Amino acid sequence: MQLTDQQLFKIAFLTAIIGMVGMIIFAGEISPRSIKIIEINPGMLDEEVCIEGLVEKVEKAFKSDTYFLTINDGTGKIRIVVFESTVNEIEKNGFNVQYFDKKRIKVTGRVNEYRGNMGLVLKDAKSLKILT
Protein backbone atom coordinates (compact mmCIF):
# COMPACT_ATOMS: atom_id res chain seq x y z
CA MET A 1 0.00 0.00 0.00
CA GLN A 2 1.40 3.34 -1.07
CA LEU A 3 0.78 6.42 1.13
CA THR A 4 -0.02 9.63 -0.65
CA ASP A 5 1.29 12.97 0.53
CA GLN A 6 -2.21 13.89 1.68
CA GLN A 7 -2.58 10.71 3.78
CA LEU A 8 0.88 11.17 5.29
CA PHE A 9 0.01 14.78 6.17
CA LYS A 10 -3.22 13.67 7.89
CA ILE A 11 -1.37 11.04 9.95
CA ALA A 12 1.31 13.53 10.99
CA PHE A 13 -1.30 16.16 11.84
CA LEU A 14 -3.38 13.76 13.98
CA THR A 15 -0.25 12.52 15.78
CA ALA A 16 0.76 16.11 16.57
CA ILE A 17 -2.73 16.96 17.88
CA ILE A 18 -2.85 13.85 20.07
CA GLY A 19 0.63 14.65 21.44
CA MET A 20 -0.34 18.24 22.29
CA VAL A 21 -3.55 17.18 24.00
CA GLY A 22 -1.58 14.61 26.01
CA MET A 23 0.96 17.23 27.07
CA ILE A 24 -1.81 19.59 28.20
CA ILE A 25 -3.59 16.87 30.18
CA PHE A 26 -0.47 15.54 31.92
CA ALA A 27 1.41 18.82 32.43
CA GLY A 28 -0.06 19.23 35.91
CA GLU A 29 0.99 15.71 36.88
CA ILE A 30 4.69 16.20 36.20
CA SER A 31 6.54 17.17 39.34
CA PRO A 32 10.18 17.26 40.44
CA ARG A 33 11.43 14.06 42.00
CA SER A 34 11.98 13.91 45.74
CA ILE A 35 15.51 12.94 46.67
CA LYS A 36 17.90 12.82 49.61
CA ILE A 37 20.70 15.41 49.81
CA ILE A 38 23.36 12.69 49.58
CA GLU A 39 22.03 11.79 46.10
CA ILE A 40 22.70 15.26 44.65
CA ASN A 41 25.69 15.24 42.30
CA PRO A 42 27.20 17.33 39.46
CA GLY A 43 25.36 15.20 36.89
CA MET A 44 22.11 16.76 38.14
CA LEU A 45 23.03 20.40 37.37
CA ASP A 46 19.97 22.44 36.32
CA GLU A 47 17.62 19.60 37.27
CA GLU A 48 14.64 20.53 39.41
CA VAL A 49 14.42 18.42 42.59
CA CYS A 50 12.54 18.36 45.87
CA ILE A 51 14.15 17.82 49.29
CA GLU A 52 12.94 17.82 52.89
CA GLY A 53 15.01 18.71 55.90
CA LEU A 54 15.67 20.86 58.94
CA VAL A 55 16.88 24.42 58.44
CA GLU A 56 20.04 24.63 60.53
CA LYS A 57 21.12 28.13 59.58
CA VAL A 58 19.74 31.22 57.83
CA GLU A 59 22.28 33.72 56.50
CA LYS A 60 21.80 37.00 54.65
CA ALA A 61 24.16 38.12 51.90
CA PHE A 62 26.27 41.16 52.70
CA LYS A 63 25.40 43.27 49.65
CA SER A 64 21.81 42.23 48.87
CA ASP A 65 18.64 40.78 50.31
CA THR A 66 19.55 37.29 49.08
CA TYR A 67 19.39 34.61 51.79
CA PHE A 68 21.10 31.25 52.19
CA LEU A 69 19.40 28.42 54.09
CA THR A 70 21.49 25.46 55.23
CA ILE A 71 19.30 22.34 55.28
CA ASN A 72 20.10 18.95 56.82
CA ASP A 73 18.02 15.88 55.96
CA GLY A 74 20.07 13.36 57.95
CA THR A 75 22.05 12.21 54.90
CA GLY A 76 23.85 15.50 54.36
CA LYS A 77 23.64 19.27 54.26
CA ILE A 78 23.00 21.60 51.36
CA ARG A 79 22.72 25.34 50.87
CA ILE A 80 19.54 26.81 49.40
CA VAL A 81 19.80 30.17 47.65
CA VAL A 82 16.76 32.42 48.05
CA PHE A 83 17.14 35.40 45.74
CA GLU A 84 15.81 38.86 46.62
CA SER A 85 12.74 38.60 44.35
CA THR A 86 11.69 35.36 46.09
CA VAL A 87 12.37 36.90 49.51
CA ASN A 88 9.97 39.71 48.56
CA GLU A 89 7.31 37.13 47.60
CA ILE A 90 7.78 35.34 50.94
CA GLU A 91 7.46 38.61 52.84
CA LYS A 92 4.26 39.50 50.94
CA ASN A 93 2.83 36.25 52.34
CA GLY A 94 3.52 37.52 55.86
CA PHE A 95 6.72 35.60 56.65
CA ASN A 96 10.26 36.72 57.36
CA VAL A 97 12.96 34.41 55.94
CA GLN A 98 14.51 34.21 59.44
CA TYR A 99 11.26 32.50 60.54
CA PHE A 100 12.36 29.30 58.75
CA ASP A 101 15.34 28.83 61.09
CA LYS A 102 15.05 25.50 62.96
CA LYS A 103 11.90 24.57 61.01
CA ARG A 104 11.44 21.39 58.98
CA ILE A 105 10.70 22.37 55.40
CA LYS A 106 10.15 20.96 51.92
CA VAL A 107 11.95 22.79 49.11
CA THR A 108 11.74 22.58 45.33
CA GLY A 109 14.72 24.05 43.56
CA ARG A 110 17.17 23.82 40.70
CA VAL A 111 20.50 22.08 41.37
CA ASN A 112 23.52 24.34 40.94
CA GLU A 113 27.20 24.36 41.80
CA TYR A 114 29.07 27.28 43.33
CA ARG A 115 32.77 27.15 44.16
CA GLY A 116 32.77 23.36 44.04
CA ASN A 117 29.78 22.95 46.38
CA MET A 118 26.40 21.65 45.29
CA GLY A 119 23.35 23.74 46.16
CA LEU A 120 19.78 24.51 45.19
CA VAL A 121 18.25 27.72 43.92
CA LEU A 122 14.73 28.14 45.25
CA LYS A 123 12.26 28.26 42.36
CA ASP A 124 9.77 30.68 43.91
CA ALA A 125 7.96 31.38 47.19
CA LYS A 126 5.48 28.54 46.54
CA SER A 127 8.40 26.11 46.37
CA LEU A 128 9.09 26.39 50.10
CA LYS A 129 6.67 24.70 52.50
CA ILE A 130 6.86 24.39 56.27
CA LEU A 131 6.33 20.81 57.47
CA THR A 132 6.71 21.32 61.25
From TrEMBL:
<keyword id="KW-0472">Membrane</keyword>
<feature type="domain" description="OB">
    <location>
        <begin position="49"/>
        <end position="124"/>
    </location>
</feature>
<keyword id="KW-0812">Transmembrane</keyword>
<dbReference type="InterPro" id="IPR004365">
    <property type="entry name" value="NA-bd_OB_tRNA"/>
</dbReference>
<dbReference type="InterPro" id="IPR012340">
    <property type="entry name" value="NA-bd_OB-fold"/>
</dbReference>
<protein>
    <submittedName>
        <fullName>Exodeoxyribonuclease VII large subunit</fullName>
    </submittedName>
</protein>
<feature type="transmembrane region" description="Helical">
    <location>
        <begin position="6"/>
        <end position="27"/>
    </location>
</feature>
<dbReference type="GO" id="GO:0003676">
    <property type="term" value="F:nucleic acid binding"/>
</dbReference>
<dbReference type="Pfam" id="PF01336">
    <property type="entry name" value="tRNA_anti-codon"/>
</dbReference>
<keyword id="KW-1133">Transmembrane helix</keyword>
